[in-house]
From TrEMBL:
Protein source organism: Jannaschia helgolandensis
Xref: Pfam families: Rhamno_transf (PF11316)
Swiss-Prot/TrEMBL keywords: Transferase
Protein's UniProt name: Putative rhamnosyl transferase
GO MF annotation terms: transferase activity
Amino acid sequence: MRPVIGLCRFSFVGRGDWVAWRGHDGDDALRAETASMLYDEARLTRRFWTFENLLLASLKAQTCPDWHLIVLTSDVMPQRWLDRLRDICASDPRITVEISSLNDVNTAMLPTVAEVEKTIGNTDGRTVQFRIDDDDCLSNVYVERLQAVTAAFSEFKAFSFTMPKGLVATFYDDQPPQAYELELPFHSVGTAALLPPRRAGDSTIFSFGHFGIGKRWHAVADYGPPGFFAVKMTDHDSAQITADAGGKHAAISWDALEARLATNFPFIDLPGLRKALAAG
């Protein structure tokens, strides 16, 4: 069975999906501006809550425990928060923290991916990688279903994987909290791939846009149970979600959300989530 490695950006100051960094290498002014926003005390308090209670809780609840997680952050994160991140991640040997001075997600991740591959006995430089952020979480059957696809596609040079059905909760400063259902293939949460053989280790899952990755190789879309639960807050670098009739997000009640979370996200404390994030 091929190792499954998750790559997570935790308030990383650098080029990734952030709109402000498109077309930029990241000069000192942009890096300082990004750090000031990312490391705001209130924001980090919320992010650590979601990291522990959503992402890590979802991984520890997996029906298949054969996963590894690399958590990338920047060396300019305030020291007490870096210490806290290390302490949290030290509780599970499957989690590796990479603290980088680099400005690019892919470049910063590559050496750590190679090291984790070596540690877990992978010798051909090819792992199944999935992308995840610190405020998202995965269905408790995600790794099991990804591993089943990996076994079925073991002879392929490359493949991509998505669980398109998901659930979303929004916590914006200027509107009440709202819950949604979403069905969107290759949504960023949990998009995965077995990448082609790398040229001297030059690629990670973040080397490819998540919506485009399903068109590169053989693609599997698992329309079984919801694959992810994501939260969106005011401090996100993306357009606000609204319940307009033409949007991809279908508004549902909080009671409906709680019912849909019960089977595959039993670790989520919905009242606790609302209490922790609604003020943000």
